[in-house]
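Thread: "does anyone have the structure for this chain?"

Original post by V.I.:
We have the sequence but no experimental structure in hand. Need at least a predicted one for the grant figures.
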Amino acid sequence: MTEPFQWARYHWRRLICGANRDDDERPYNYSSLLICGGKSSQAPKLAGKHRVVVPHIQPFKDEYEKFSGTYMNNRIRTTKYTLLNFVPRNLFEQFHRAANLYFLFLVVLNWVPLVEAFQKEITMLPLVVVLTIIAIKDGLEDYRKYKIDKLINNLITKVYSRKERKYKDQCWKDVTVGDFIRLSCNEVIPADMVLLFSTDPDGICHIETSGLDGESNLKQRRVVRGYAEQDSEVDPEKFSSRIECESPNNDLNRFRGFLEHSNKERVGLSKENLLLRGCTVRNTEAVVGIVVYAGHETKAMLNNSGPRYKRSKLERRANTDVLWCVLLLIIMCFTGALGHGIWLSRYENLLFFNIPDTDGHVISPVLAGFYMFWTMIILLQVLIPISLYVSIEIVKLGQIYFIQSDVDFYNEKMDSTIQCRALNITEDLGQIQYLFSDKTGTLTENKMVFRRCSVAGFDYGHEENAKRLETYQDAVSENEDFADTPSGSLSNTTKLRAHSCRTVHNGPLGSKPSNCLAGSCLAAGNGEGTSEVPHSRQAAFSSPIETDVVPDTRLLDKFSHITPQLFTPSDEMVQYPPLETLYIIDFFIALAICNTVVVSAPNQPRQKIRLSSLGGMPMKSLEEIKNIFQRLSVRRSSSPSLASGKEPSSGVPNAFVSRLSLFSRMKVASPVEEEVSQRSESTEGSSDSSCHKEVEKQLTDVGLTNGKVESLHGQPLDSNLCYEAESPDEAALVYAARAYQCTLQSRTPEQVVVDFAALGPLTFQLLHILPFDSVRKRMSVVVRHPLSNQVVVYTKGADSVIMELLSMTSPDGASLEKQQMIIREKTQRHLDDYAKRGLRTLCIAKRVMSDTEYAEWLKNHFLAETSIDNREELLLESAMRLENKLTLLGATGIEDRLQEGVPESIEALQKAGIKIWMLTGDKQETAVNIAYACKLLEPDDKLFILNTQSKDACEMLMSTILKGLQKKNQASPEQASLNEDLCQLPTPQDLGLRAGLIITGRTLEFALQESLQRQFLELTAWCQAVICCRATPLQKSEVVKLVRNHLRVMTLAIGDGANDVSMIQVADIGIGISGQEGMQAVMASDFAISQFRHLSKLLLVHGHWCYMRLSNMILYFFYKNVAYVNLLFWYQFFCGFSGTSMTDYWVLILFNLLFTSAPPVIYGVLEKDVSAETLMLLPELYNSGQKSEAYLPLTFWITLLDAFYQSLVCFFVPYYTYQGSDIDIFTFGNPLNTAALFIILLHLVIESKSLTWIHMLVIVGSISSYFFFALTFGAMCVTCNPPSNPYWIMQEHMLDPMFYLVCVLTTCIALLPRFVYRVLQGSLFPSPIVKAKHLDRLTPGERNEALKKWREAGEIGQVTSQYVDHSAAKSGRRPMSGPSNAFAMRSATSCATEQGSVSVCETDLDSDMPKASEMAGPPEG
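Reply from O.Q.:
Generated one for you, C-alpha cells below.
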C-alpha cells in the first residue's frame, strides 16, 4: 500500500502546491505539466537516485513496463489550467493573497444579519471585479501557452515501431523513454537521447544549441564508445543493452551514466553522448538515439522556468503600510463600537434608540457595541485598498512596455533589445546601491585579439599586428562616418578594399589572407565575391579583427628555418635543431590542437571538413623527416646555450622517433573537399593581382623555393577554413597558429590533422580531451605524436595554476633544468608585463608520458568515467594526476577591448552614488589595467591591495588599513567601531576620499570567512570601487550575498556567461548580457541587455521613473482611501455610531473602484518628474531613489495626516453650511461626495510633475463618469434604499448655486495646505529633483549654462571637503603608529607609463610606514 499512497500524495501535493515546492523535494519539478486536473499518460517515478532505461522493443516488454514504462512521456503542458479546473484553481491561487482573503471575509461577514451594513450584492462587487480582471488576464496568458504547447506536441519525428519493425512518423507527444528515434539533418531533437549511430564515419553528430542556450557555434556529440565502429545503422531489434543514468536534472553541462551490455560490460556515458531536446542536428545526414528523458523531465524543460517573480523592496514596504492601515481600521472600528455602546447606554430607556426584538428581548449596549465593531469593519472596508494590487500589476506592465519600447536599448548588430524577464521589480532599478560586474564580455567586447606571445623565454611583441589593429579601427570608423553620405560611400569603399588587399595578404609562408575566412577578401577583391559566401558570417568569433593576425617578423624568421633541410645532414657531422625551435613547434601545435574547435568550409559553414592526412605533401619529404627523427632518437650532441638563442637538443622531453604506421591510416578526400578546392582555386584567380605580387614577395623574403611554395599550395583548403569555437579565446589562438602556417585542418574524435609549415600535415591520434573547468582553470588534450609515437599532454590554462604544475627537475641533467628555470623566470616577467598592458594571459605547457604511465592513468580514468556517483570528483582527481610535471613552452597575451560607452557609463553610475565591484577571474594586473581604462579607478585614487597567503596576515593587513583610514579621516569612534551596525558605515563621498580595493582570490577566500566578514565589509565601505581578482563563480555569489545580507542594501549583478549565473541569481536584480558566451546568463536574469552602456539609462532614467511613479502612486492610493473613508467615520459621530452611511452604497463602492481608479494608474505609467536627457546629464539625481526619499515612513504618515485634514474639511464645511436645514441624509451626502471627488483628483494634479493631454483626458473622464452615474442613478432609482433613496438629488443640486459654492469652497480649503507646501518647497527649499525640473523649461543655451554652474557647484563642494580633510591631516596628527604591519596604498598620480603600460607606484600614508612590497608577499601568479 506504500507506493499507491505515495503516488496519491504526490499528485495531491502537485494539485495543491502548483509550481511551488519545498527545498527537500526532488531537485527537479513538474511545475509545467498538468499541475491541476490534467493527467499524464504515465505516473512519474517517485523514488531512486538513478534511472534505468531499457529499449522499447518486444524482447524487453516486461522489463520495459517495469522501468521505462513508469516514466513520463514526451507530452508537455506549460499551462496551469484546463476548461474544467480554471475557475476553482484560479480562485484558489488568487485567495493566496491576504488582501483577497480579507475582502472575502468581509463579504461573508456582511451576510450575517446582525452585522449587515450594505446590501449583500454590493459588498461582493469590489471583490468580484478584482477577481474577474485577474482571471481574464491569467486565462488569456494561459491560452497563449496552450496554443504553443499544442504546436510543439504535434510536431512529427520518426520513431521505431516494435510492431511494424520499422521507423514511422509519430507526434512528439507520443514519444516515450526507451524509444529509438531517427533524425535527419536540420531536424530538431524531440527528447533527450543517447546517441547510438551517426552517418558520419567518425561517429560524430554536430548540433546547434541556439534554441537552448543561444550559442550559434556548432558542438560535437559522439556515438557511444563501441558503436562508432559499426559500418551499418544500429538495429533496434538487436539492441540488447540497457542504460543506467542519473535522475532528471537541469544541469545542461552534465550527464552521468553507463551503458551495460548483455555480457555485463559497461561503457561510460557523458554529456558528449547526449543529444538535448530543442537542439538542431547539423552537418550530419542521419542519427539514431534512444530516449532517456522525455517531456518535462528533459533538461530543456527543467530549465524553462519562465518569467522570474520577486518581491520588490517597495512592495514589501507597501505591505507593511497596509498592516498599519489595518491597525488604523481596527482603532476606528473600536472607536465606533465604543461610541455606539455609550450612545445606547445614555438612551437605554428610550425605545426610539434601542428597539427590542420581536420577543421583547433588548440587546445590551456591550453586545450591541460588539456587533457594531463588525458592522463598522464592513462600512470602512475601503480603507484597505483592494484595487491597489491590481493597479500595481497594471502599472508595472505599462512600465515594462515603455522600457522595452525604448529605441536606445536596440542593438542593430545583434538585432535585439532589452528583455524584461522579471515582471514585478521594475521599481528596484531606481534604488540600486551596489553593482557587481563581471569583466570579460560584460565590460569588454569578448572579441579576443591575439597581441603578444612568449616562446622559450623570448617575447614577441607583434608590433605589425598592433598597427594592423589601429588601421582596422580607423577603417571601420571611417566606414561608419561615410556610410550615410552618398558622396563618401564610393571613396571609402575603395580605401577599405585597398587596405584589405594589402594587409591580409601580408601573411607568412605564402599563406592566403585570413580575411578570406570571413569572406571579406572576396568582398574586397570584387563586388561579386560576397554572393559566393552567403553564410560566411555564421561562424562564432570570426570577425576580421579576430581572424586577421599579422605575424611577428622575428618569430616569422625563425619559422622560415623549420624545413626538412634543417634536419638533413650536409656531411658526416650532424647538427640538430636548437631547443628553441622544438619549443616553437610544440608551442604552436598546442595552440592549434588544445581546443574543441570544429573545422568547416566557408561556403558551407555547417559542412565539416575531412582531409586526407597526406594532402599535397610529397612522400619524399615525409620520408626525409622520418629518417631525420630516427637519427635524432639515437644520436645526441651538445649545442650552444639558450643565451645565444639556441638550446641543446639532448634530453628534449619529446625526442621524435619515426612512426610510419599512422600514415597508412590516411583517408582520401571526399567529393565535398574537391568541390571546395575548386571554389578555392577560382577564388584565388579572381583576387587582385597586386595581392599575388605581395604574396610572392613575402615568399621570397622568407627564403622559400618555388618547390616549397607548390607543396604548400597543394593544400587548397588551408586558407578556406571556418573555425567554430566554443569560446573566443580558443578561436584567437587557433587563428594565431594559422597565421604562422600551423593550420588546424580537420578534427575527428580519433585524430586531429595540423598542417605545420614545411613539415607538412601531421596527424595526431586524439586520446583524451580534459575540458576546462573553473576548479582546474585549465584544459588539456592527450595525443599520440605522429612522429615520436609518444603520448604527449598539451595543457593551456591560467598562469597561476600552470606555474605550480611545472616540473622542477629534469631527467636529462642539471643543464637543461637550469635552462628551464631561466625560461620560467623570463616567461613570468613577460606574463606580468602582458597583465599590466591589460592583456588576458594563458600559459602553454606539455608533458611526455611513457606508455606504462599512460596505461596506469587510463585504467583509473576509465573507472571514473563509468561511475555515476561522485563522477566529477573522480574525474577531477584523474585530471590532476595527469596534469603535473609539465614543461613550460610559453605564454600568450590576448586583448579583450572595452565595449563602447563603458567608461562613460561607469563614471555616470559612480556619480549616481552606486558602488561598483568588479569580480573577475583574471590576473590582478589585468583587472587593474581594465579598471583604469573603464574609469572604475581614477588616476588619483588610492589603492589598497590585499594579497596574502594566510588568514592571520589578511586580518592584520585589513586592521592596519582601517586604523590608518580612521585616523587620517577623523572618523568618530562610533563610526569606525567594528561593533557598530554595518549599515551606518561611512562612505567615500562623506569623507572626501576616493579609494579602491584590490583583493585576490586566495585572500578573498579568507575575507569571506565569518570571523573576517565584518572587517572586510567595513574596509570596502571606505572604497569607491572594489576589484576581486582570480574569483571563482562560487566566490562571486558569496560576495554578493555577503554585501546584500549584512549591509542590507539593494544589489545588482551583471554578467554574460555561465560562470556569472550564481551571482546573478543571488542579487536583488540580475542582469544578463546577451553577448558571445551564449544565453545562460540571460536565462537566469531578471533583465537582459545587449551592451553594458545600456545599464546607465536603464537605472538612471527608467529606474528613477519607475520608482518615483510607483512610490507616489502607492502613497496616493493610501491617501485617497483614508480621505474618503474618514467622511463615513466623521458622520458616525452624528448618527449615534449606528453604522449608517450618508451616501448611497453604490456610489460608495464605485467611488474607489471606478471614479478614482484610472487617474493614478495613468500617473504610474506616464509620470515624468525630470526628462531623460536631464537624468542622464545629472546622475546625482539618482540618489533620491537610493535613499527612498519618495516613500519614507515619515512621508507615509504625513500623507495620512493630510488625508485626515482634507476629510475633516470635506465633511464639516458642508455640515455647517446645511446645519439647521431640512435636507435629507442623501442630499447632505451628495455635496460631500462631489467635493471629495474634486479634492482627490486635484490633489493628484498638484502632485503631478508632467501633465499631458492623457492625464487631463482621464481626469475629465473620471469626473464625467461620476456625474453621468449620479444623474442616471438619481433618475432611475426610485426605491433603491428605502426609506432613503437618491432619486433626483443630483439634478436638484445642479440647479442650486449653494451646491457649487460648497464644492468650490471645500476643495480650495482642503487643498490649500498641500498647494502652499509645494509652492514653498519649489521656491524656497527646492530639492535637486525640483531644480532639475526647472532646467527642462529653459532654452538649450540657458540650460547648458545652468548645467555648467550645477557641476561647478558640485566640484566646489568636493574640493572644499577635500581641503578640510587635507588641513586636518596637516594639523600634526599622525595617521597611525604601532607595529610595522604595512599595507599597500597606491596612487597612480606619480606613476610612470612605460611602453604603453600603466605602472602603479606604491606610496605610504605616512613616512614611518613600510612599503607594500615589504609585507604583501609575492604577487599571486
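V.I.: this helps a lot. The mean pLDDT is 74.
O.Q.: and The two ends are 62 Å apart (CA to CA).
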